[in-house]
Design a protein that fits this description.
- The chain is of the alpha+beta class.
- Helix content is 16%, strand content 26%.
- It has a domain of 99 residues: Roll (Nuclear Transport Factor 2, Chain: A), CATH 3.10.450.
- It has two helices and four strands, in the order H-H-E-E-E-E.
- Strands 1-2-3-4 form a four-stranded antiparallel β-sheet.
- The longest helix has 13 residues.
Length: 151
């Protein structure tokens, strides 16, 4: 059973297609300045991880949300910290105020973030390492307060 033929304006069956569309069907011209690619700056790994860690340590996300974003003992450290929810607040939601970092070697970043909620300011420190797959993973995390020994 043959398929129906769709006829476009100005097209005859069996005729070769014309090189240009009919004058009334011309594509609109776009000025050169609007054809440029717009590059959106990507957030840095320190910004992404500060937000991710804050979400877990404030109780807004479960700790397993960070499982694929951690390496080594960092997940265990994060799980112990998350039990205490050190950045959870009763009032305004905590937000990242400032991030600082140090690059001890290529592929490693040691970072800190100032976390604010209302008039209270807390500290968050973490280390990121870039794997062979070029993905950044958190390898250590700490908040202000007493440390708990990990086995």
């Amino acid at each position: 059973r043959p398929l129906p033929v769709l006829l476009l304006p100005g097209h005859r069956p069996g005729a070769a297609p014309s090189a240009a569309p009919p004058a009334d069907r011309q594509a609109p011209t776009v000025p050169a300045q609007t054809r440029r690619r717009i590059t959106v700056p990507q957030p840095s790994p320190t910004d992404l991880f500060a937000d991710r860690l804050l979400a877990v340590l404030s109780g807004r996300r479960p700790v397993h949300w960070m499982l694929r974003h951690t390496a080594g003992r960092a997940y265990d450290e994060l799980a112990l910290l998350a039990e205490r929810a050190p950045l959870r607040t009763r009032g305004p939601l905590p937000v990242v105020h400032d991030i600082g970092y140090y690059v001890p070697r290529p592929g490693a970043i040691e970072a800190f973030a100032r976390i604010g909620a209302g008039d209270r300011l807390r500290a968050l420190a973490f280390r990121l390492e870039q794997g062979a797959d070029l993905r950044w993973r958190c390898t250590a995390v700490e908040t202000g307060g007493p440390r708990h020994a990990t086995a």
